[in-house]
Amino acid sequence: MLRIESIHKDYPRGRSVVRALHPTSMTASKGELIAIVGPSGSGKSTLLSMIGGMLSPTSGRIVFEGKSLYEISVTQRSRLRNDQIGFLFQSFNLVPYLTAVENVQLPMTFYGSDRVSQRNEARRLLEEFGLAGRLDHKPTELSAGQQQRVALARTLAIRPNLILADEPTGNLDPESRDMVIRTLHDLCDEGRTTILVTHDETVSASAHRVLRIREGHTSAASPNRSCGAA
Ligand SMILES: Nc1ncnc2c1ncn2[C@@H]1O[C@H](COP(=O)(O)OP(=O)(O)O)[C@@H](O)[C@H]1O
Ligand SMILES: [Mg+2]
Predict the structure, then answer these.
(1) Residue with CA at minimum distance from ligand 1 atom 7
(2) 179 lines ligand 1 (CB under 6 A)
(3) Whole-angstrom Cα distance, residue 165 to residue 66?
(4) What is the pTM of this model?
(5) Does 82 sit in the ligand 1 pocket, CB within 6 Å?
(6) Of 48, 46, 56, nearest to 19 (Cα)?
(7) Domains (ranges, CATH) in the chain?
(8) Per-residue confidence at 229, pLDDT binned at 50, 70, 90?
(9) What is the mean pLDDT of the chain?
(10) Pocket mutation for ligand 1, best pick of 16, 46, 89, 213 (most atoms within 8 Å of C-beta)
């Protein structure tokens, strides 16, 4: 579903350039959970942003569901991103003045269906994540673990085929971390694909494959264990 063909990224910096990522190739299949592991500043977020259609590579191609991400129009790329790619961040990125339900509803409002069914779907997702008693709470009224569960529900509201997560468990207690990782695995079992950046060995150990990255150099994704669909 995803093919990365020799992409690299240079950031201009004054008269010189920073090579954030050296040429990298990889593929991700349906149902796979891939962990990207490496020290701070090694290029993990740069790689994830390029895969997510938010940052064009200096060279190379990213082919997602048969489309070359940076050779289609900006409008087509935004649509592809909104329809098929879900993002999850360490800092949750919830809208502070909206309730849990409203935050989850937000990505659905870009679609045609009516507000009542969107609200019901948002409720259902939150209840599934054990937040039935927190539907009308604002993010500041929730623990870190609860906030990430709201963020996860929001990510799933669009039913993404590809989930990109940047340190999604970085701010969580072990119990919440395990819940997030279990959910991501369930989603992969449903045939979705997850690529996540992590520092946490427990998290990377559960991935199907691990891509190690150091100073912009990636080493081939090593097999961890097999996954469902190919
Ligand atoms: N917008 C930018 N302009 C210049 N350099 C950047 C920019 N973003 C990141 N970098 C540099 O690129 C390298 C990789 O950064 P990043 O992908 O954020 O690493 P990581 O997510 O692994 O911590 C770092 O050396 C960083 O300083
Ligand atoms: Mg980063």
Answers:
(1) 11
(2) no
(3) 22
(4) 0.92
(5) no
(6) 46
(7) 2-223 (3.40.50.300)
(8) very low
(9) 92
(10) 46
